[in-house]
Inverse folding.
């Protein structure tokens, strides 16, 4: 469920006047999706999943249960063997700039500066130059990369690189952003900072986020909704709605009783799958 | 924010401990590194200098027959003689320029051809498939094996010489370029696609830059191979070029002139590789 857009951050020229999407409008739908990388071994069978406009949905589940596969299908990198993946009611036919992806590894363009990386998506959009510059500048501030605009990826730390990757996908305002364990490779401190920035960005930019992680804490801190996938063939084992005090990015949320309650709950459910 | 606060205190603590700790007497890392680099440089210079000294002593003392290894001073004298009087009736400059023109014409055109073919073969699997067998057969054959064939086809003049050099270099650049295109991480291509890039933009902004390090490696290997082939091509026929000096000098047992030819080729080979390396470091600066 989309949070009401916060007014605590004023750097909001990233979006046109924020229109609150209808709370239950579906943006991505998987219906009866069956998929395997080879026909002999299926990974997903009859998976049905709906992602709503603007929501932050996280997939949890044991390793190899098909989380990345679901992201690949939604991104349009693969086609389902049976069933349908839809975006705004239309079948997904291939990769599109309407569905952003943040990869786990380093997918930055090493030959471009931070600024050029972030502005890359704008090359293919017809915005005025000024508008593009404005948006790039705003997002660079939001992810705290001021001063590094002219640096190249090899000059950045792992955390900063991931910030660039997130900013690059976010700045073109995809209707959904797919993130596959984006923060898995950074240290805990940096990771917490990145999570808070991501939540702030999510408030500024209206799209939905589909997030994959192995960390229950990360899932609870970030998500509006958490789906736990089952071990066999990507069945949905459980679904949890998370409601924590606004603004969601306050670090205090990490130590609240409500947070601990969710965490315990989810932990036991994950244990039950084994 | 809590996080900021804790970072700041950590910084303060670090500063305090630094202030209290006894001063570190040794060099800091920067000067240590500089010293090491200076030392390495000296070792690198010392070895060739040592060889030259040994060379000069042994030849001056007559321990080695002048006919096998002329003295360095002898070579230098011969060089100045050739430089002022020319070789075989042609000024030294003409020999040098003739060779360099051959090498760089062939290298330039060969690089362009290799680059184009390599990009196409790397990107389009049908083109790759079409050329695959041919390149796999050509690859292990030393280009020099074709030299007489080229003369048969294109005559004994300039064209055969340039073409054989061109062929050798182009093949190397092509294979490296193809490798570079294929080594482009899939994630980067997909990332570009999800940002709205279409085929042509992906090629221009992602695949080509990603292949550049490979392309430059290929160019450097090609250039050194080109110099090697140059000498061989000039050995065969003609009366102009550094390779011709080598060939002609050896038939007359003019070992000093022979060494002049060899050392001049070495000189131009090293200098052009150095320049190419500079350009490469400029262009592929993101390699760190
Ligand atoms: N490119 C591929 N080709 C063939 N099989 C694959 C490929 N990618 C994944 N698989 C297989 O599909 C299954 C699901 O993989 P997937 O990567 O979706 O799991 P995951 O839930 O993301 O796991 P993890 O948590 O370890 O990332 C696994 O059995 C895996 O071996
Ligand atoms: Mg995965």
């Amino acid at each position: 469920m989309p949070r009401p857009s916060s007014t605590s951050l004023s750097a909001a020229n990233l979006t046109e006047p924020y229109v609150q999407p209808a709370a239950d409008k579906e943006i991505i739908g998987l219906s009866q999706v069956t998929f395997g990388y080879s026909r002999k071994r299926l990974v997903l069978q009859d998976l049905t999943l709906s992602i709503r406009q603007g929501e932050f949905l996280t997939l949890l589940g044991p390793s190899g249960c098909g989380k990345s596969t679901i992201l690949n299908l939604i991104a349009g990198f693969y086609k389902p063997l049976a069933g349908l993946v839809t975006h705004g009611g239309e079948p997904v036919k291939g990769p599109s700039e309407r569905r952003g992806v943040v990869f786990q590894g380093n997918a930055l363009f090493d030959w471009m500066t931070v600024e050029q990386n972030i502005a890359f998506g704008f090359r293919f959009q017809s915005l005025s130059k000024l508008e593009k510059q404005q948006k790039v500048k705003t997002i660079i501030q939001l992810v705290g990369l001021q001063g590094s605009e002219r640096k190249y990826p090899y000059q950045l730390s792992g955390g900063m690189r991931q910030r660039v990757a997130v900013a690059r996908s976010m700045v073109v305002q995809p209707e959904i952003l797919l993130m596959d364990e984006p923060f898995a490779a950074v240290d805990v401190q940096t990771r917490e900072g990145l999570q808070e920035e991501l939540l702030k960005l999510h408030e500024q930019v209206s799209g939905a986020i589909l997030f994959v992680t192995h960390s229950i804490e990360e899932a609870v801190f970030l998500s509006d909704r958490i789906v736990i996938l089952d071990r066999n063939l990507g069945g949905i084992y459980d679904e949890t709605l998370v409601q924590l005090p606004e603004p969601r990015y306050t670090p205090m949320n990490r130590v609240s009783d409500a947070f601990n309650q969710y965490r315990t709950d989810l932990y036991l459910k994950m244990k039950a799958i084994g | 924010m809590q996080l900021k606060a804790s970072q700041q205190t950590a910084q303060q603590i670090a500063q305090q401990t630094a202030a209290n700790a006894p001063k570190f007497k040794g060099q800091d890392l920067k000067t240590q590194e500089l010293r090491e680099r200076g030392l390495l440089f000296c070792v690198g210079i010392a070895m060739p200098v040592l060889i030259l000294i040994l060379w000069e002593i042994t030849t001056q003392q007559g321990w080695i027959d002048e006919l096998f290894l002329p003295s360095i001073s002898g070579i230098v004298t011969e060089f100045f003689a050739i430089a002022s009087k020319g070789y075989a009736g042609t000024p030294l400059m003409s020999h040098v320029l003739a060779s360099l023109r051959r090498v760089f014409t062939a290298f330039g055109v060969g690089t362009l051809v290799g680059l184009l073919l390599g990009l196409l073969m790397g990107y389009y699997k049908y083109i790759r498939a079409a050329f695959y067998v041919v390149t796999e057969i050509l690859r292990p054959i030393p280009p020099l094996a074709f030299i007489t064939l080229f003369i048969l086809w294109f005559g004994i003049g300039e064209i055969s010489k340039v073409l054989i050099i061109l062929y050798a270099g182009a093949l190397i650049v092509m294979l490296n370029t193809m490798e570079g295109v294929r080594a482009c991480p899939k994630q980067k291509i997909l990332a570009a696609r999800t940002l709205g890039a279409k085929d042509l933009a992906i090629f221009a902004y992602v695949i080509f830059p990603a292949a550049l390090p490979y392309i430059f490696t290929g160019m450097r290997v090609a250039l050194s191979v080109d110099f090697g082939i140059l000498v061989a091509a000039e050995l065969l026929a003609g009366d102009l070029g550094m390779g011709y000096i080598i060939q002609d000098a050896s038939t007359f047992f003019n070992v000093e002139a022979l060494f002049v030819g060899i050392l001049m080729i070495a000189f131009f080979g090293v200098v052009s590789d150095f320049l190419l390396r500079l350009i490469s470091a400029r262009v592929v600066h993101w390699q760190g």
